[in-house]
Amino acid sequence: MNTQVVTRFAPSPTGFLHIGGARTALFNWLYARGRGGKFLLRIEDTDRERSTPEATAAILAGMDWLGLDYDGEAVSQFDGADRHREVALQLLEAGKAYKCFATQDEIQEFRDAARAEGRSTLYQSPWRDADPATHPDAPYVVRLKAPRDGETVIRDEVQGDVRIRNDQLDDLVLLRSDGTPVYMLAVVVDDHDMGVTHVIRGDDHLNNAARQMAIIEAMGWPVPTYAHIPLIHGPDGKKLSKRHGALGVEEYRDMGYIAAGMRNYLTRLGWSHGDDEFFTDAQAKEWFDLKGIGKSPARLDFKKLENICGQHMAAAEDAALLNELKDFMAATGQTPLLHTTEYKISQALPFLKTSAKTLPQLLEKAHFCLVERPIEVEEKAAKNLGEDARAMLSDLTPHLQNATWTRQDLEALLNSFAEDRGVKFGQLAGPLRAALAGRAATPSVFDMMTVLGQEESCARIGDAAG
């Protein structure tokens, strides 16, 4: 029987969407989408003190920017507390869990004595097999009767078989003394109820899997396929932290990396398909599998990220790239584009996008579209507007006013004009760059003039000629 693949991303809303969490979400998304399955989102908000609506909004915004669409509504773990409690009581009823009346002081005494005698400090409750008739009228927690003998084997698609001796696992608390369910129980119940078939998550959860499997097996539920993926490290090989720079997805958005490039780079971070570095979403969905995930932590490499983003920018549809540029400008608080400016940039995108790797670089190259007359000429470019250069521009203007305004005709006209003046084309291009954009480094003068049009180009050149 072929069961539909169901994956999930289950972040805790205690801050921004971390780059590591974004990659976990991406792996789950790719695995499900490539197999016609479902990708679900669960907000693990049981920690009421640290969970905030702002953090939930930041996670949703980060996923939206990355283009990771999920099926149905996002589920709140906290909202399922009654269901989680119900499962704990079922286990209690079936004799697979028990009421433990031990106080915190008693547990501490047990551990202190065990430590002094060189025994395991893993708490072993005297209430595990106690006769219910001996139960006092006092607060209690509900603990799982975990297996004491043998071993638990986590069959992991990334880590291989991971074996944990059962005498290393404690009787997990399922319900606290106030009746609230613990996170470890909630995760298991939610995954089962949501029909999750594949749990793809960070390898910092690997030890949790053994304890969660004890609950799953006590309930007689199917064990999902596990894939615990290594964490992301900084360029220095150490666990990713603030000292390495950006941690949250929105920081990468605000630095101007495009979403398609980010998806490609994060997919390739710890997973490989032969030697392929650059690939489309369609290819990633087709190729992505659990066997391609490496066991070692991947290292963040900003140079590689920028390079991949540059390739995706060059390959992007102009209309989609323009929308991404406008979204970036809005997200970073920049003045929206005027209609006329937006039109110019859309005309310039075919040549702008091939030489930029990030959206700020794209805007920098589009400077000639963004400025208005009179053009402010920067110092370096002003050096190209000496007396001879201005005279040359003055002589050129009537030729341009009568020219056919195509790139090919402009190229022929300007090259011919330079030749007639006995100068190299570069000696004409420098003054033209200064006149058209006020900069010494710009896109090709032919491209700029084609986008600006005859009237605007002639006006800018006339201004510079004085």
Automatic annotation (TrEMBL):
Residue ranges constituting the Aminoacyl-tRNA synthetase class I anticodon-binding domain according to the UniProt record: 324-464
Enzyme class: ligase
GO cellular component: cytosol
Subcellular location(s) of the protein: Cytoplasm
UniProt record, GO biological process: glutamyl-tRNA aminoacylation
One Pfam family of this chain: tRNA-synt_1c
Domain Glutamyl/glutaminyl-tRNA synthetase class Ib catalytic stretches: 4-306
Keywords from the UniProt entry: Aminoacyl-tRNA synthetase, ATP-binding, Cytoplasm, Ligase, Nucleotide-binding, Protein biosynthesis
Motif 'HIGH' region, residue numbers: 11-21
PANTHER family reported for this sequence: GLUTAMATE--TRNA LIGASE, GLUTAMATE--TRNA LIGASE, MITOCHONDRIAL-RELATED
Protein name in the entry: Glutamate--tRNA ligase
Annotated source species: Pseudooceanicola nitratireducens
Gene name per UniProt: gltX
